[in-house]
């Protein structure tokens, strides 16, 4: 320490401020990086990949969206241009709705490729969404999709590991650490400089994503708050790796040890745990098949009553109630068509059952996801994915929202048609749904379905716990880094 | 002293290496167990559903045959179809988590039923399964890299490199190959041991097991050889580790992902939706067309029912089923085109496997396990064949206006899965083997002594 004193005496004004020292260390690190024949091409490759990912994702999202809205318009037109018909035929003709893609799905498509986007809505049935990409894409989809989220979540941390694993260790291995500290540099300054250098690299990686998100926000209806959340979450994710890389580099004696340890951490947290967690969740909470649910629903319906059986207790009570309501004694005397009323009551009962079972199934799936979320304590990428998909509107909850809105719409449509049967078709004539028809103008205005995206606050609320986990990780890693820094000072002394 | 035992003793003394091998064995065991458990769960579900289906049929029999009308029975009777997991399915669960392996169909238009989805949690499917295929494709290369990346530089660090090279035997090729061979062989053993035990226990056919062993061996050989190539040509351990992990990222994460993006664009599959929309128009338009004309159109394609009596006034089941079938027939071509484009995607993926061993081994394993897109299409074919039998069974009752009795109800056709030929995925294996042999040949072409990467 004494060796530094004369220098300080000789030129006190020239002694750099602490901040300046940090910057100089970072600049030195960047200079090394620029000369590195492996790191620089890898970084350039990653940035190109990010740009390509942003472009392809944006382009395919735009195509998919255009296609879906074209199909939606076609389905709408098909519905409205149906000829004169019995309303019940229209109940079975049904309607198609197409799940619109959230604009931010270009950044993180989430479950979109897995859920299917075409939903056929008809009377007495709840169909599942069809034609998901996973059923149509061989197995390549299982390797991942080229999106900014994939590049930032999986590849960027790996590059940070390669670029940064030697940052502090190199100084120690080559003996420069001792010299630097002897010249009065505090360990904290050194570590801060290395953090700044690696943080700069991380910021560079985030830049294409930021530009892409800004472009999406400007050109579409995507809420800026959610785009900002996406950027912030991925920024935090990269910050976690910057902290971890520098801490491990400061802690372990050799650069290669740091590299091996960090690679193992990456492989576990990004590749292994994200697969183990869903496996565990699926075996802890299994889902019944559609087959079982359908049979269960049919049984519960049969237990309720049979509308075709004149002696059925439930439906004779319903009939009595209708007759009493209109003050008549025979269904023939009703001012409305009893068959239409019966259809409405039947639809009400089936929908109630369907909705209960659908809610149960979604509830089970939510429980599965809670199990997965617990694994975020082992692997923060799970927390990041939760935040990312919630913000992009591509998580299970967003899909559920679509399915439920579509179901509400289906119910309204079918009931409107049943009501037309009750009001426009006379009971005495209602013998054949083929021969009795009402005017086609009645179909107008029924086919309008538009999905209302969830309020921004919804996504924020869903993302909050996972964001908390990410911040917790940041806190733990910062403590680790602080400990490593203190250790650095002690080791050299 | 035997050189191999000496090498083995050295390996046992290296704690990280032993840990890596034990970890691989543990992960492979865990994956095989998870796969067995899932396959057993699916079998159990199938057995349970078959029982449930029998009950439903029994409950329905009296009610659906009361009027003696085949049309009513055909309308309300759902028939179960199933796609049982193959004996190798536990190794690679593939698409079975996202596609139905049970589906109920009835004698109405098939196209409206065939594409029905299954209840699954998309977020869990998104992550992909933890099965043997995953451990092999993603994790085994990482373990091999960890075992082999400092094959040469590790000796230098220990100060033995000069001595070893000076030993009789010249370049020391035998030593390195023995060293790499022992590690790769043990890794292969760690991967295959749980598979072999499970295969024997499951009674997996020999051809399939041979295929799985061949695929695993070729893939391990590829990565071991690649590791040797880079470890012997790059002096610094950090640089060879970087190059190897970089190669792993490229081959197992990046290029397949890029290929998926390219393939999705090059072979667009929109026809599925078009198919549904067109089929619905055809079927529901059937209600508005003159009934006699519809029936004549049906008879021209199916003259064997031409003798049927004239349509009664009011509703008629035979007319109803005729236009249901016409609806299917109107989109038959579009359906073939849809299938063809799905198969094209599958074929391009298989071809890609010739270049990318990760994709190649995925393709081979999933083909052997019959859990890929092709297997899904084969199941759809089985459903279609059964559906055709169902129609044939009902049509005499409908068109000859025969009474449909309880006995007839009980004698309805049952779904049978067509036997799936064991498929060792020879083509994918050949591609994989070619990649492995090229890498092995490169590893065999040892740098001459002068070319040893001696600088630090």
TrEMBL record, chain A:
Q: Is Aminoacyl-tRNA synthetase included in the keywords of this UniProt record?
A: no
One family from Pfam that matches here is DUF3526
- Which keywords annotate this record? Membrane, Transmembrane, Transmembrane helix
Q: Which InterPro entries match?
A: DUF3526
Membrane-spanning parts: 38-58, 149-168, 195-218, 224-252, 259-277, 463-484
Q: What is this protein called?
A: DUF3526 domain-containing protein
Automatic annotation (TrEMBL), chain B:
Q: Please name the InterPro entries in this protein's record.
A: DUF3526
Instruction: Give the Pfam families listed for this entry.
Output: DUF3526
Q: Where are the transmembrane segments?
A: 132-152, 180-201, 207-231, 243-267, 424-446
Q: Which UniProt keywords apply?
A: Membrane, Transmembrane, Transmembrane helix
Q: Name the domain of life.
A: Bacteria
Q: Identify this protein by name.
A: DUF3526 domain-containing protein
- The species this protein belongs to is Aquincola tertiaricarbonis
